[in-house]
Write a structure and sequence with these properties.
The complex is a heterotrimer of chains A (about 200), B (about 240) and C (about 250). Helix content of chain A is about 70%, strand content about 0%. Chain A is mainly alpha-helical and about 200 residues long. In chain A, helix 3 (about 35-65) packs across helix 4 (about 80-100), helix 3 packs antiparallel against helix 7 (about 135-165) and helix 6 packs antiparallel against helix 7. Chain B is about 60% helix and about 5% strand. Chain B has ten helices and four strands; from the N terminus they run αααααααααββββα. In chain B, the strands form two sheets. A two-stranded antiparallel ribbon of chain B has the order 1-2. In chain B, helix 5 packs across helix 6 (about 105-110) and helix 9 (about 140-170) crosses helix 10. Chain B is globular, with a radius of gyration of 21 Å. Chain B starts with a helix and ends in an 8-residue tail after the last helix. In chain B, about 50% of the residues are buried. The model of chain B has no long low-confidence stretch (mean pLDDT about 80). In chain C, strands 2-1-3-4-5-6 form a six-stranded antiparallel beta sheet, sandwiched between helices. Chain C has a two-stranded parallel sheet with strand order 7-8. In chain C, strand 1 (about 75-80) and strand 2 form a beta hairpin. Chain C has one domain. Chain C has helices at about 5-55, 60-70, 85-90, 105-110, 175-180, 180-185, 220-245; strands at about 75-80, 85, 115-125, 130-140, 145-150, 160-165, 200-205, 215. The mean pLDDT of chain C is about 85. The chains are: A mainly alpha (about 200), B mainly alpha (about 240), C alpha+beta (about 250).
Chain lengths: ~200, ~240, ~250
């Protein structure tokens, strides 16, 4: 349990996918204009990440590796399979959202299917491989990473909503200032570098 | 009339439209600063020039050839599986890039690590497929791909130029043409330990962090939009 | 055009084509990949003895590395009790090739202490002396860190070190690899104290105090430096019994 919580907290805060690794910027910048749409998208991302990272772990371990069911080293198919899993998952989420909340579905528009090509989603699966997590670690990582992305996009939306009332030079307005703010937020998050949540759980 | 056309063709190997495809994305329609695509990798890999150049070449290859492939298949792709077909083609090309880099440029492969795979989700690739290749002939699509790849590449090179120069004092580190420009040892052209004008200079560590790439991008956008008022955001 | 048969046929054809091309490419390049991985490891290892062997690791060509290795380096695999393993034993642990270069230190460090097997590279230098190069592996601030420590014929004094990392902060933790001054500090330090106890080397924040067993930490990178200290301690402990047997 400790290990699980530790990775969850790390991937949500200390190693935030958007603010520390700058993954998922495209939709992050485009959807962070209002808090409402931002939180809707953020929730969808938590769901997709929480499911695709563990599924991809299973695929990697049981299908693609030499020790898997097929007995052959098929790691070169990794990219194709991972993105296929993600695309299918997003398709599923789309159908669910459309049924459960048509209003949200309409306000998110094209950004819901665009979750498929969100660097953070594929990136999380690739990090999971590169860091050689085990199954429970990949679940923690998927959920924590999604949660962190959610926090980042909602925070950004809150800031941008306020920014509408400030006086920014014309050429910098909109995109330029969004970049600079993200950079500053990224630097702020670097302050959390090195925190190992495990120390909170070791009972010292 | 046809004589004039012939001589024109000889001078400009491409039609005006084709040149537009190739050169527009370099400035007016730059995929990164105007279309706001492909940001993720622009930030992470630009800490040094060499990986940025390799990344730019890799991305150009993927955009151009996926554009080409999808354009050639566009009349045959069933509507229902359009997106998955596009993704498979992109993932296929990126896998080729990865296998090639791993074999012929191993140090850069290690440095780029996860970001090679992330070319798949580079919004520019998918963006161009949907916006252009699905509705245009193969040669034009190929050129559009090259153009957008170059537009992306130029931004990467500008950012990494500044980040490497001010963050480490070198340029093209990791290649035979490494230029050690300013630093605190005798290997550098400007040796801060002995030079009387630049003794105070130390590397700017901020440049080495990804946040710096965001700041630089913001500034490039600021510059671009003040020169080209059409692009100013009125939102 | 949009009948189910067409869709299935189209996707099947596409999948088959893609899988075929990729598997051909993969099998064709597999050897080169493996070679590159081993060369990368060898190059890192040479970093620890480049002064001693008068090499320049950043310039040396791949072919020269292989040549140097064949002529001067002996590869040995040992366990934590100090026994030397035969190549067959090494292969039984899952490492094809049976040599030190095939051993995956990351995997070994995950195992319990008694079960670990470790790579050792023995450099027969120009004076006929034996230099022992040991592999280090640990955790830095962000991700894994690794390195090589080269010990002189007295199995105590360090003649060189080289370090690598996976994701430390450039300008700070990454200095362990990027700044040659950091590993250079290790030259001349000792890993055993006068009573023969393995004390390893301490990467000390605030600067080295003990001239034989301390080096300066990287400024601004306390956690990476602590990671290096821990890496040295735990990695060297693996080799302790082997080193004692050699003395």
């Amino acid at each position: 349990m400790e290990e699980f919580l530790s990775i969850f907290i790390k991937s949500a805060f200390v190693e935030n996918l958007v603010l520390s690794y700058f993954l998922g910027m495209c939709s992050y910048l485009a959807v962070s204009k209002t808090v409402k749409t931002a939180s809707g998208l953020g929730l969808a991302v938590i769901f997709v990440l929480g499911i695709t990272v563990p599924i991809n772990w299973l695929i990697n371990r049981y299908l693609l590796s030499e020790n898997g069911i097929l007995g052959m080293d098929l790691t070169f198919l990794r990219f194709i399979l991972f993105i296929a899993v993600i695309a299918s998952m997003v398709q599923l989420v789309e159908m669910v959202v459309e049924k459960v909340s048509p209003a949200l579905y309409n306000s998110l528009g094209i950004f819901l299917p665009l979750i498929t090509v969100n660097c953070a989603i594929l990136g999380a699966s690739l990090f999971m491989i590169s860091r050689e997590y085990n199954f429970s670690e990949s679940v923690a990582f998927g959920l924590g990473g999604g949660f962190g992305w959610f926090l980042a996009i909602v925070a950004m939306a809150a800031i941008r909503e306020k920014l509408k009332y400030s006086d920014i030079p014309a050429p910098l307005r909109g995109l330029g200032i969004a970049f600079i703010i993200t950079g500053l937020m990224g630097m702020a998050f670097m302050g959390m570098m090195g925190i190992d949540p495990a120390i909170f759980f070791s009972g010292k | 009339m046809s004589e004039i056309k012939e001589s024109k063709k000889a001078l400009f190997p491409m039609t005006k439209k084709e040149r537009k495809l190739l050169f527009d994305p370099l400035n007016d329609n730059n995929p990164v600063t105007v279309q706001v695509l492909g940001i993720c990798s622009a930030l992470a890999v630009t800490s040094m020039l060499l990986p940025s150049i390799v990344m730019a070449i890799a991305v150009t290859f993927v955009i151009a050839f996926s554009n080409l492939a999808i354009s050639m298949m566009r009349k045959y792709i069933p509507k229902q599986v359009r997106m998955i077909v596009q993704l498979v083609i992109i993932a296929f090309l990126v896998t080729i890039v990865e296998l090639t880099l791993k074999a012929y440029s191993y140090p850069v492969y290690k440095q780029l690590s996860v970001f090679i795979g992330l070319i798949i989700t580079n919004c520019i690739v998918m963006g161009r497929l949907e916006a252009f290749a699905m509705a245009n002939p193969p040669w034009q699509s190929f050129l559009d791909g090259i153009g957008n790849g170059l537009g992306y590449g130029i931004i990467l090179i500008i950012i990494s130029f500044f980040r490497e120069l001010f963050g480490r004092g070198t340029l093209m580190s990791g290649t035979p043409i490494e230029m050690k420009i300013i630093g605190s040892s005798s290997d550098f052209w400007i040796d801060t330990t002995t030079n009387s004008w630049f003794g105070w200079y130390t590397n700017n560590n901020l440049m080495v962090l990804p946040a710096a790439a965001l700041f630089l991008l913001g500034m490039i956008i600021w510059y671009q939009r003040s020169k080209n008022t059409k692009l100013v955001d009125i939102s | 055009m949009n009948s189910s048969k067409y869709i299935i046929g189209f996707t099947a054809l596409l999948t088959a084509f893609v899988a075929l091309v990729l598997s051909l490419m993969y099998t064709g390049l597999k050897e080169k990949h493996k070679q590159n991985e081993l060369l990368f490891e060898k190059r890192a290892m040479l970093g620890a003895i480049q002064d001693r062997a008068k090499l320049n690791v950043s310039d040396i060509k791949d072919a020269d590395i292989i040549d140097f290795f064949n002529k001067n380096i002996e590869q040995v695999v040992v366990d934590t009790k100090g026994n030397i393993l035969t190549p067959e034993d090494v292969e039984k642990h899952g490492y094809k090739g049976g040599k030190a270069e095939n051993v995956d230190m990351k995997k070994e460090m995950k195992k319990a202490f008694e079960n670990r097997i470790l790579p050792v590279y023995i450099y027969n230098d120009k004076n006929g002396e034996k230099i022992y190069i040991l592999k280090l592996f640990g955790k830095g601030l962000w991700d894994e860190i690794s390195g090589f420590l080269a010990l002189g014929p007295d199995i105590n004094t360090v003649v060189g070190a080289s370090f690598d990392h996976k994701g430390e902060t450039p300008g700070m933790g990454a200095e362990m690899k990027d700044n040659p001054k950091f590993p250079a500090q290790f030259k001349g330090k000792k890993i055993y104290d006068e009573s023969g106890k393995l004390v390893s080397i301490n990467v000390r924040k605030g600067g080295a105090v003990d001239p034989e067993h301390d080096v300066d930490a990287i400024s601004g990178a306390t956690l990476t430096s602590n990671g290096i200290t821990d890496m040295l301690k735990s990695s060297l402990e693996n080799y302790n019994n082997y080193l004692k047997k050699l003395k």
